[in-house]
Structure to design on (661 residues):
């Protein structure tokens, strides 16, 4: 019989994990006008969070075909106060925390979580606070601005601006952040607040909604000893203020931190070794023969015991003789806990909660989002704009790169008409110039890769915490990127290159040229958006995008005449951004023109034939480009369609990203 089956904590008929039934009398307001975090599920007699027979399985192995159990049927009750989850590295602390916070794909989770004795609502992760291990806040914004962002989006729409500001001021004061309230957090380019202040800002982002359940993954990692203690003291004060459950994973707390814990859960390789009041843990370990020396830190001692037990596990597993008994030191600790009085008491509590949960249906405390789409769009767009303005180097360099490209193209093809070249090169040089221009626009927009990759962690965290809808983030990003980073630089490029090269002097021709250049730039950026929303690593995204661009370039009509492609490959030209773009630019400039040598007579020029003249339309038809007038707009449509398809793909990729969390 496996340990899992033996567990005395296995309840008889658990309600399904993450039940989302909505009580009919509970109004669901998508705009969140009546949401207060303490309604419904978070009533005054808050009994905390309980987890029943939690099993977590992931598929590992070369093709993800080998199921591996990470948590083996763990159960417990986390009442109001500071509850610490401890264990050696890889023991499953973060995994358990994520499951309790409703942030793991349900398909991989067995067992169920009750919040205040009711099934965990589906929007629980929006109504609880979760502070991730690697701080996630916008570096270009100040502490206060970040907190205002959280207040603007997470407090109900009915909250006035003055109330939001007041809430931010209270949080700043609670967290002792007054001194650095107006200091920027800091990015890789400039130093901002200290590590402790950054961590407290992260906690503040969650405290804005006064969550009754607050999860923290290793809140003290990376902080100096004094700051670490002050962060946990702060959490202790918060837990004492109201019926608040603080659940945190923590690695190796010093004694002054350990003292502050109310509840302690010890994990070893996905099994529970102790679960109960932190202050009883020493007595429990003494009672099973593990006596902590006086003056030793209990937290260090427990971790030593668990690490040694895990190591002995490894040794005995390879040892045939010991294997015959099937019992190792780590197994022993798990089994001893499961047979202990401590475990029996927890098991009884769990059973009572599970029995009562059948009579208490799951409820949603308000909607998933506290504010409406337009408000979210406005707030996220303002933040994106602020971020862009405070990172002027990125937008400045985008414009500068385009100006340099324009000057290079302009100098290479300077005043094409005035050059002493033979009549054929007048046309081929123009097509060469268009191809070079399009290539600059396409590859010059590789910077769009960063838009989604850099802020992916921020997006996943904020979206799953209920700050905003995927669509609000998507539209704000796309518009804030497209206008300043694609359209302005491309228009600047058009002005410089068009007049330096000396294309036809006509306002209509120039604006059509600029339109095609901007659309080319937007289409290339959309391809970069779609790939960057799909792939997590910049290097890989660049590789995929470059491959796609090169493929499109090949079918652009210059390296191989489009008409000479095999019939079964002809359709590919309709997927080529280069083809639409070069064809549109060439059409705009060359169709209807007759380029003749200086030696040509008036009659030859009139007829536009013979070796001394090149008919623009015939030349383009000869290399497989369309010259009918309607193609001027079909090409523009083709570019717009590519941009649209990839922008849609970006949106769906972002939605998938959200689901995969
Ligand atoms: N998606 C996954 N695929 C494969 N293994 C996983 C996955 N998620 C977790 N694990 C494994 O499960 C174990 C527990 O992971 P978890 O992150 O919960 O550990 P932890 O106790 O938080 O460790 P640490 O103290 O290092 O943060 C680890 O061995 C980890 O490699
Ligand atoms: Mg962890």
């Amino acid at each position: 019989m496996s340990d899992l089956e033996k567990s005395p904590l296995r309840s008889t008929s658990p309600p399904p994990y993450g039940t989302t039934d909505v009580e009919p009398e509970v109004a669901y307001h998508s705009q969140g006008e009546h949401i207060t975090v303490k309604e419904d599920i978070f009533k005054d007699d808050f009994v905390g969070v309980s987890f029943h027979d939690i099993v977590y399985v992931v598929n590992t192995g070369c093709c993800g075909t080998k199921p591996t159990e990470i948590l083996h049927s763990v159960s417990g009750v986390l009442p109001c106060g500071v509850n610490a989850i401890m264990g050696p590295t890889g023991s499953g602390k973060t995994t358990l925390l994520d499951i309790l916070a409703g942030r793991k794909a349900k398909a991989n989770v067995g067992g169920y979580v009750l919040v205040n004795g009711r099934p965990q609502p589906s929007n629980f992760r929006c109504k609880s606070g979760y502070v991730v291990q690697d701080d996630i806040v916008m570096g270009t914004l100040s502490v206060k601005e970040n907190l205002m962002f959280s207040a603007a989006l997470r407090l109900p729409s009915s909250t006035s601006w003055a109330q939001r500001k007041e809430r931010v001021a209270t949080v700043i004061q609670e967290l002792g952040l007054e001194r650095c309230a107006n200091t920027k957090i800091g990015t890789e380019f400039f130093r901002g607040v200290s590590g402790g202040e950054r961590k407290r800002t992260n906690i503040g982002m969650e405290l804005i909604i006064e969550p009754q359940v607050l999860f923290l993954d290793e809140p003290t990692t990376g902080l100096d000893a004094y700051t670490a203690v002050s962060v946990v003291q702060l959490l202790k004060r918060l837990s004492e203020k109201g019926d608040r459950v603080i659940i945190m994973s923590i690695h190796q707390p010093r004694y002054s931190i350990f003292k502050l814990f109310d509840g302690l859960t010890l994990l070893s390789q996905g099994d529970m070794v102790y679960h109960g009041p932190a202050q009883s843990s020493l007595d429990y370990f003494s009672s099973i023969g593990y006596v902590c020396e006086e003056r030793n830190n209990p937290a260090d001692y427990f971790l030593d015991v668990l690490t040694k037990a895990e190591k002995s596990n490894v040794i005995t597993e390879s040892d045939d003789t010991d294997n015959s008994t099937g019992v190792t030191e780590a197994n022993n600790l798990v089994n001893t806990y499961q047979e202990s009085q401590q475990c029996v008491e927890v098991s009884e509590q769990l059973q009572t909660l599970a029995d009562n949960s059948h009579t208490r249906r799951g409820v949603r405390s308000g909607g998933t989002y506290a504010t409406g789409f337009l408000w979210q769009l406005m707030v996220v767009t303002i933040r994106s704009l602020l971020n862009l303005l405070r990172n002027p180097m990125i937008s400045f360099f985008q414009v500068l790169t385009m100006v340099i490209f324009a000057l290079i193209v302009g100098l290479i093809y300077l005043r094409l008409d005035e050059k002493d070249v033979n009549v054929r090169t007048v046309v081929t040089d123009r097509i060469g110039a268009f191809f070079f221009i399009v290539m600059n626009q396409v590859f010059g927009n590789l910077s769009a890769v960063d838009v989604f990759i850099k802020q992916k962690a921020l997006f996943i965290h904020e979206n799953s915490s209920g700050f905003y809808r995927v669509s609000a983030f998507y539209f704000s990003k796309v518009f804030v990127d497209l206008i300043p980073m694609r359209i302005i630089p491309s228009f600047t490029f058009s002005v410089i290159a068009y007049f330096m090269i000396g294309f036809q002097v006509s306002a209509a021709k120039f604006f059509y040229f600029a339109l095609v250049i901007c659309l080319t730039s937007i289409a290339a950026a959309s391809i970069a958006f779609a790939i960057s929303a799909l792939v997590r690593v910049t290097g890989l995204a660049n590789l995929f995008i470059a491959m796609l661009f090169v493929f499109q370039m090949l079918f652009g009509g210059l390296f191989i005449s489009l008409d000479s492609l095999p019939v079964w490959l002809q359709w590919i030209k309709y997927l080529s951004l280069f083809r639409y773009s070069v064809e549109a630019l060439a059409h705009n400039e060359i169709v209807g023109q007759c380029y003749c040598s200086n030696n040509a007579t008036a009659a030859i020029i009139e007829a536009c034939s013979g070796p001394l003249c090149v008919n623009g339309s015939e030349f383009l038809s000869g290399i497989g480009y369309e010259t009918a007038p309607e193609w001027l707009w079909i090409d523009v449509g083709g570019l717009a369609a590519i941009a649209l398809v990839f922008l849609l793909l970006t949106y769906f990729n972002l939605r998938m990203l959200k689901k995969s969390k």
Notes: The CA atoms of residues 7 and 338 lie 7 Å apart.
